[in-house]
Amino acid sequence: MLTLFRLRARRLLCSLLRAWPLLLLLLTAGPLAAQVTLPTAPLSADPARARYAPTAAQHRPTALVLPFFDDFTTPLEGMPSVLRWQPVGGAFVSNRLALRPLTRGAATLDGLLANGKTYSGQVNSPNGVLDSLVSQPINLGGLGTGDQVYLSFAWQAGSLVSAPGSSIPSDPVRLELFVKTTTGAWESKWVYNAVRQRTPFRQVVIDLNQAKYLHGTFQFMFVASGSTTDNSDNFSVDYVLLDRGRSRGLTDTTFIDVATGAGYRTQPTGGLRSPLRRFTALPVWQFNAAPAPGELNPDLGVNITNLSGSAAPLPLDATGTVRDLNAGPVSGFWLQSQSSGQGLVPGNTRQFPLVGSAAAAPLPATAAPKLLRYTLALNSRETTPRTLPNDTIARDVELNNYYAYDDGSSENVVNLLPYPTGQSSAFAYLIDLNQPDYVRGLRLVPVFTASDASSRSVTISVWANNGGQPATATLATKTATIPAAYPAGFKYIQIDFDQPVRVSGSFFVGFSQPSTGRTLHYGFDLNSRVPARHFWRRDNANVWDSVSVAQNGALLMRPVMTNNVATASTPATLTAEAFVLYPNPAHGLVQVAGPAFARAAVLDAVGRVVWVQPAAQAGSATLPLPALPPGMYLVRLTLPDGQAVTQRLLLK
User: Fold this and answer.
1) Does CATH place domain 2-38+410-561 in 3.40.50?
2) pLDDT (tens digit, 9 = 90+) per residue, 302-345?
3) What is the assigned CATH class of domain 273-399?
4) Cα separation of 358 and 477, whole Å?
5) Quick check: pTM over 0.90?
6) Residue 473 CA from chain centroid, whole number
7) Distance between CA atoms of residues 529 and 552, nearest Å
């Protein structure tokens, strides 16, 4: 008990010392507008993670055969593939946490359970064992000690989120590799104890040429230890290869593999950059109304990784395509590059940028919402099938009815601190319009902590642009209650104004909360960037300051627009063509792109209602459909004025 008390006291003191300059800045009003640096904090939960959580452990009926390989290019995001890994342990595959992974994607042991919650479920608790990554059984039976069996992998301490803490015996922060022997025991084979520093990816080769490892149900397992309170202690694993005949032995760390990587130019993480120049999503009618040079990004690219260690340039072709997932085939090429005699891959270069222009593939100025997939595919002339999947990377962008500066995922949180006196604190975005419009509402991503046992009140607002900062008076406000948990199938909370708010030119939109004595967390994306002086914070003296972020970052806050519809009701002239269902064919969640509707229902081929949107989710654009037999269905959308439209949906 005394040790636990000392641990908590030490953490509290360190937190206060680190936060004191921030608290002094935020809890005292300043008379002049300036630029403030916004600190971010590790996640205490990730509500969006729950949709990836496995429902039951899956074990292969037969052991895998060599070679065993995974560079975590699939899935794009979620739990590791059950073809190679057991669905237990909480490791998370993505291209947005690890710093400069070897290829697109890495498995991060980030200290959050598969359901997105912390291991302790408490505000402050001692360190302990966190995530694990456990292979499916692998058949090494019949191999001998001379078969040159080696396991290699790349690992990293820390992530985009933070550097890990410093490991001590009573407070471990480490990554450890265990292997299973013929007796069924797990034997520690390698360990790294963190020293409060991020590391680049380093490669390790493990010698398994001993009889106790060469059996028919061999397994290996990575285990991370660290903070059980939040995801501040991260470790990542990439490019795992277990095979026989590895004649280079402990030096077998280079591969004939040129792959899509993470980030772009100097950015260490994230996938393909946004195909949009200013935003990551925007209303389709605002996209169509953009003056020259338009909204498409002329500097679209990603870092390419060369794992060969070769001093000679390597030949490489690259093709960038775009297609509307609602419309079908490829509609354009944003990059077409062929290698010259000198090659496109510089020799002795680990990472280099590959760039094109999204504007090279103009989009049709049609009114229908669009879900666009920008894909970059390499032709590296490789002959090993296992390395081919990492030659392709893609990014989706939506042109629908909302603006976004973020990519839809949270790696950190920011706080609205409760001031003891004065005005409640607020965040706001500056939005530059291409044509006049109306603001319907605002989407927010609250991150619920262990102390969030009750709902919270929030006020959304629209302000006029007063010389580059929010005006003193609001154009409109709406106060609502955010529940202490997300409705089923939702990744955000949307609050709508009683009537859409007229805006033109540029405007500010954001939210505030009263000083209730609670520090409230909201999702923050570390892989995106907000233009300078477009992100603002209000203090308790009603002074607005523009916000800078120590690294890239965007608050998950998305204004929803109406395309000049001035009332909360939907025009009677709407037809089924105003709505798009995606994905289509679908399995599980279905999104509805288009104007507002009141309720959704699904009918089978003979017209029977097989699913009705619950009242608590009425009007939500996300339809979490139950398990229905494959086939053709009709989705009936009831509009606010009572009329109904239908769209076909194929379930697979």
Assistant:
1) no
2) 999 999 887 777 888 999 999 998 777 778 999 998 765 456 77
3) mainly beta
4) 37
5) no
6) 35
7) 5
